[in-house]
Amino acid sequence: MGLIKLAAAGAIGYALYKYANQNKAQTATAGGSDSYPVRDAGPENMTHTPPRWSKTDEAIDESFPASDPPSTY
Hints:
This protein is 51% helix and 0% strand. The chain is built from two helices and no strands. The chain has a domain of 26 residues. The protein has 73 residues and is mostly helical.
């Protein structure tokens, strides 16, 4: 009798695990909290174009969010 209860608990746990992972995958592919919008570098791809744009601004924008500094330094 204990083995049947253990098997039932395992099956329920597995079903819950699969259900949770399925919802997580759907959220990520549907633009949920696990995915972030990515913008191409450059002022032409910004929603609000800055009044001034220097080579330093361009290098910083191209390197973000990477931890490496731009190659122009």
